[in-house]
Amino acid sequence: AQRVTQPEKLLSVFKGAPVELKCNYSYSGSPELFWYVQYSRQRLQLLLRHISRESIKGFTADLNKGETSFHLKKPFAQEEDSAMYYCALKAGYSSASKIIFGSGTRLSIRP
Amino acid sequence: DTGVSQDPRHKITKRGQNVTFRCDPISEHNRLYWYRQTLGQGPEFLTYFQNEAQLEKSRLLSDRFSAERPKGSFSTLEIQRTEQGDSAMYLCASSLVVTSGINEQFFGPGTRLTVL
User: Fold this and answer.
1) By C-alpha distance, which of B49, B25, B29, B17 is closest to B113?
2) Of A86, A98, A100, Cβ closest to residue B56
3) What is the pLDDT of residues B16-69, one digit of tens each?
4) Which is it for strands A3-5 and B75-79: parallel, antiparallel or unpaired?
5) In angstroms, rounded to a whole number, what is the distance separating the alpha carbons of residues B113 and A41?
6) How far is it between the farthest Cα atoms of chain A?
7) What is the DSSP letter of A45?
8) Is residue B56 within 8 angstroms of chain A, CB to CB?
9) Which of A20, B13, B63, B91 could be stapled to B35 by a disulfide with Cβ–Cβ 3.0 to 4.6 Å?
């Protein structure tokens, strides 16, 4: 079954501390993984995708097929990083297939 | 605002009533998706359209739910005989399908449904 698991509902860290939001997936094919973010009172938006191997707002995520993980990391948290983060998996081979979301992790950055 | 728009933003209804939501995608986007999000969960896929054709429906989409995209532009999602379990945020997203490159889904602000 296709599934995305985010084990932490809430993660609270101090400003300047490292951040790691965990994500594990279950998918039989070759996965495409994403991180979406939703800031307070804003709509859901794409943060980054694994195939781009990019760093956005200081965040990076590496796909580990052996551990079926796609953890989101940032070395130094900032207060504006406080938001809801969703790990997601594109299901299917089409370039426009549906997305399966995890249940989300609320990141709270303490000053 | 040139992003995805949804109307209404909030809807309160009594159990057993029918409700209809509208989604206007980004104008050149040919794919339109509907998701449902309940409290404490991530969005769950309901259905999607390629232009006016409905290509996939989730098992979550019971026979009380129907979606249309008659002219390949805006879409409507109707729920008949609403139940309290239908209370959720209903999200719409759109994307432009290209043969290569990235297909990013852009989300609307959602319609929050409360069934009393």
Assistant:
1) B17
2) A98
3) 999 999 999 999 899 999 999 999 899 999 999 999 999 888 888 889 999 999
4) unpaired
5) 17
6) 43
7) E
8) yes
9) B91
